[in-house]
Amino acid sequence: MTLPETMRAVEIREPGGPEVLALSNRPVPQPAQGEILIRVAWAGVNRPDALQRAGSYKAPPGASDLPGLEAAGEVAAVGAGVSNWSVGDAVCALLPGGGYAEYVTTPAAHALSIPTDMGLREAACLPETFFTVWSNVFERGGLAAGERFLVHGGSSGIGTTAIQLANLFGARVFATAGSPEKCSACTKLGAERAINYREEDFVEVLRGEGGADLILDMVGGDYLPRNVRALADDGRLVQIAFLKGPKVELNFAQVMLRRLTITGSTLRPQSDLAKARIASSLREKVWPLLDAGSIAPVMDSEFPLDKADQAHARMESSGHVGKIVLRVV
Ligand SMILES: NC(=O)c1ccc[n+]([C@@H]2O[C@H](COP(=O)([O-])OP(=O)(O)OC[C@H]3O[C@@H](n4cnc5c(N)ncnc54)[C@H](OP(=O)(O)O)[C@@H]3O)[C@@H](O)[C@H]2O)c1
Q1: Secondary structure (3-state) at 83
Q2: Is 0.90 surpassed by the pTM of this model?
Q3: Which CATH number fits domain 6-125+296-327: 3.10.290.10, 2.40.50.140, 3.30.450.20, 3.90.180.10?
Q4: Which of 69, 189, 218 gets mutated to test ligand 1 (max ligand atoms within 8 A of its CB)?
Q5: 159 C-alpha vs ligand 1 centroid, how far in Å?
Q6: Nearest CA to ligand 1 atom 33
Q7: Mutation test of ligand 1: which of 45, 47, 137 has the most ligand atoms closer than 8 Å to its C-beta?
Q8: CA 184 to ligand 1 center in whole angstroms
């Protein structure tokens, strides 16, 4: 099949609000050695896309300047040395950027199969949150069955994935969210206790349970010292974002006296090899659960590619529960 020379893509005209997202024409990218070219059917929308658009999260060197960290579609071409995928295969993939477009390239090792009985629309919403949650909660955070796990932003794309996975792997799950509706979504997904942070203090709730063994936090700011108070002895805090800012005064004596671990990571700047290792672990440990239908992404809403601005506005309204997706075909 011959490929077109140009494609529709959404670019960031300048740093700013959702209105700076504009449809444009770009050359179709060529897959380099070890890469595949995907004809995108659906592209997932993530909070880091909004941060990139606002100018506070730069694309790493060598990555596309177009937003979009995950997509699902069909392999349209393969680069030299690719043997695990063929033209026509349906895939979902973690992307270095460039997902808000009709075609995108990514390392072949960062693509995964479409789970059994799952559509491309849902599959497009798997990679960014599953790579992030798996690597931070299970690999970095070492969550074990029976442990008390607290995830903030429980109704977010990340939160809904973390609740389901932690529950499936036998943890006791606690989640915070900002409304009764969002709290109810968290308990339906498997949280034994959802905490409406506007009405209740998560520190008191967790201390009443003996403290959290692991906290996944994206809020930061005043949550940092509060997370430390909410942790059980030997507890771990994994930081994946700072919606309320990264700077805070913290008494580190607690870290020493109660043997706490504070760590964190961000996915995008990691090496291709590190991401391939996460993909491989997901393929082995998590994709069978998706194939079996034991877990699925929570879908909030969809927008056509040329309405990416509306998708970002929805995300930044924080009215959503789960994932927002762009229809590209
Ligand atoms: N480190 C990594 O590799 C990595 C990868 C992907 C995403 N992330 C981060 O993970 C977070 C979630 O990403 P996502 O794509 O799932 O986004 P999302 O669905 O938009 O989730 C953000 C959530 O944060 C909550 N929130 C927003 N502002 C808050 C505040 N000031 N205080 C408390 N909660 C607040 C909102 O829930 P409420 O309405 O309940 O407040 C919302 O559900 C983002 O911060 C993103 O940057 C990190």
Answers
A1: coil
A2: yes
A3: 3.90.180.10
A4: 218
A5: 8
A6: 219
A7: 47
A8: 18
Mean pLDDT by 10 residues, the chain (329 residues): 94 98 98 98 97 93 96 98 97 98 98 98 98 98 98 98 98 98 98 98 98 98 98 98 95 96 96 98 98 98 98 96 97
Going by C-beta distance under 8 Å and a sequence separation of 6 or more, which residues neighbour residue 273? none
Closest protein CA for atom 17 of ligand 1 = 47
Q: Computed over its alpha carbons, how large is the radius of gyration of the chain? A: 20
| Ligand 1 geometric centre to CA of 107 (Å) | 26
Which tokens in the block code for residue 308?
A: 């990416």
Report the interhelical angle of 180-189 vs 157-168 (nearest 10°).
30
Instruction: Tell which residue, 81, 96, 103, 86, has the closest CA to residue 33.
Output: 81
Is the dihedral angle over the CA atoms 176, 178, 179, 181 positive or is it negative? negative
Q: Fold identical between 6-125+296-327 and 130-264?
A: no
- Cα–Cα distances (Å) from 297 to 40, 43, 110, in that order, read 19, 14, 19
